[in-house]
Design goal:
299 residues, seven-stranded mixed sheet, two-stranded antiparallel sheet, alpha/beta, Arc Repressor Mutant, subunit A
């Protein structure tokens, strides 16, 4: 049984007329008749009753018309989906993000991507940078929004959002109102930190700002969540260095102090497996870069 047999039968069943059916399919009437005969022979049942008054479906023909129509409709849908996937307009993506990016960056990207490509389904996971790298390299994630810098020969990594680091402290802290703040002023202070084990290069970047000024941060507590870190600072447990946009959108009552000009920035990157950027990932990456840069300007 071939698709031409199903198409021929459905056309005759709908038109109940071989002449109109042959015109609809743009085939000769003898060829159409042959298709129906071949189909009935293969099934071993009569699907159509033919007489001088016209064509009529048998009970078996009525059931077969319904099922054949469903098969052809699924074929049309399959063709459409395959074409959409090839164009990067349909499919499924497994995407991870660091929790802090979910506060001010990832939601807007996801909402815009869903608006542009409603046929794409997204699986969203909150994972730390080191966990994302492992899953991306193993092929268990399609894309990730992670903290840079990151080095991996197996990944393509594109910076999409940049903002300055700030030093945060609770209200009333001795450094909160100190004029002309410098990193050296934090000597001896108790620091809280986003754990190095979760984003090693991120940790090394901000500590290097102080070390370049002769100050080694005395870290008394590490945490695996930026939100927890800010809550601890607000409670008076210590001071911390975090991305500025995170503080502005956290809802915590904190004081921010700028770090020296030309200090390294906090950067979020878009990552996927090297050499495996599908049309769908290409569209997501391009949108992420555009919206990330826009957010950087706003921050």
């Amino acid at each position: 049984m071939e698709l031409r047999h199903l198409r021929s039968f459905v056309a005759v069943a709908d038109e109940l007329n071989f002449t109109r059916a042959s015109e609809r399919l743009h085939v000769s009437q003898p060829a159409l008749t042959a298709h129906i005969q071949e189909l009935e022979s293969e099934l071993g049942v009569q699907l159509l009753e033919r007489n001088r008054r016209g064509v009529k479906l048998t009970p078996a023909g009525m059931v077969f018309r319904r099922d054949a129509g469903s098969i052809l409709q699924k074929l049309i849908e399959a063709e459409k989906t395959a074409q959409q996937v090839a164009r990067g307009e349909a499919g499924h993506l497994r995407i991870a993000f660091v929790a802090s990016a979910a506060i001010h960056l990832v939601p807007s990207i996801v909402m815009e991507f869903r608006r542009l490509y409603p046929a794409v389904t997204l699986e969203l996971l909150n994972l730390r940078t080191v966990e994302q790298i492992a899953r991306l390299e193993e092929g268990r994630l399609d894309a990730g929004f992670l903290r840079l810098p990151v080095t991996s020969k197996r990944l393509e990594i594109m910076p999409i959002h940049k903002e300055p680091f700030v030093l945060v402290m609770p209200l009333g802290h001795r450094l909160a109102a100190k004029p002309g703040f410098r990193p050296e002023d934090a000597e001896g202070e108790e620091f809280l930190a986003y754990g190095r084990q979760w984003a090693p290069a991120f940790f090394d970047t901000w500590t290097a700002i102080f070390e370049s000024c002769g100050v080694t941060p005395r870290i008394v507590q590490e945490t695996g969540e930026m939100g927890t870190l800010l809550a601890l600072v607000a409670a008076g447990a210590g001071i911390a260095v975090v991305p500025r946009g995170l503080v502005k959108k956290s809802g915590e009552t904190l004081v921010m102090r700028d770090l020296p000009p030309r200090s390294p920035s906090s950067v979020i990157g878009f990552a996927c497996r090297a050499g495996e950027r599908t049309p769908l990932l290409t569209k997501l990456g391009a949108l992420s870069r555009t919206m990330g840069r826009r957010a950087s300007k706003e921050d």
